[in-house]
Amino acid sequence: MLGLPAQITVALFDLDGVLTTTATLHMTAWRDAFNQFLTRYDDQRPFTEQDYLDHVDGRPRIDGVRAFLASRGLVVDEETVEQIAAAKNAGFVAAIERDGVTPYPGSVRYLKAARAAGLRIAVVTSSKNGAAVLDAAGLTGFVEHRVDGNTIVTEGLRGKPAPDSYLRGAELMGVPVEQAAVFEDAISGVQAGAAGRFGYVVGIDRVGGRQAEDMTAAGADVVVTDLDVLLSAQ
């Protein structure tokens, strides 16, 4: 009834853009932080949504800064990297404090159906604000374990697209990867699920355009526009 293979007993959900609408807040905070930095250069175009999708989405904060700067051929010192990351986080935190956090209704329906069916649930996110976002969205009660940006730093894990954070999630849930499904809205996250050889990788396309095609190429087993589509697919 959940649109998953029979062997799947654990769901590993990314957070921003999968369960909550906060991916848009992240994108706006990145845009503001990078565009402020780019004013130092006369030959640099502004940061775009495609820049976010290609270089930042799903990655740990510092990795996202480095990936975007590398895409523009910009070399800066580590202090500047950390300043951009700090400015982005300050903007994101201010946005959730101002606007709150909204879960996707389709995701809430899916979480309720998953819990009723006995599917165990964990969240795997690169964000260091994972706990605050889950609490603000009223979703903490669904989650058995959480791997977030703080876990990645503390345990020395590689960020997405490496599979480390998802592998850690499966380990905490006590299941082999074949019994766990990854749910992702970022190409880097889909790549992580595929690299970890998880039992099923679900891409959630909230962008349109070529995103579904790119997710399939990155290793998604199925791509849907919202999680509750999986319920109606049965």
TrEMBL record:
Q: What does the record give as the reaction this protein catalyses?
A: beta-D-glucose 1-phosphate = beta-D-glucose 6-phosphate
Q: Which residues form the signal peptide?
A: none
Matches recorded under InterPro entries:
B-phosphoglucomutase_hydrolase, Beta-PGM-like, HAD-like_sf, HAD-SF_hydro_IA, HAD_sf, PGP-like_dom2
Secreted among keywords: no
What cofactors are annotated for this protein?
Answer: Mg(2+)
- What's a single GO MF annotation on this record? hydrolase activity
Q: EC top class, in one word? A: isomerase
| Enzyme Commission code(s) on record | 5.4.2.6
Fetch the Gene3D superfamilies from UniProt: HAD superfamily/HAD-like, Putative phosphatase, domain 2
Keyword tags = Carbohydrate metabolism, Hydrolase, Isomerase, Magnesium, Metal-binding, Phosphoprotein
Q: Does the keyword Magnesium apply?
A: yes
Pfam families linked: Hydrolase
Q: Per its UniProt record, what NCBIfam families does this chain match? A: HAD-SF-IA-v3, PGMB-YQAB-SF
What family, per the record? Belongs to the HAD-like hydrolase superfamily. CbbY/CbbZ/Gph/YieH family.
Q: What protein name does the entry list? A: Beta-phosphoglucomutase
Q: Which organism is it from?
A: Gordonia hirsuta DSM 44140 = NBRC 16056
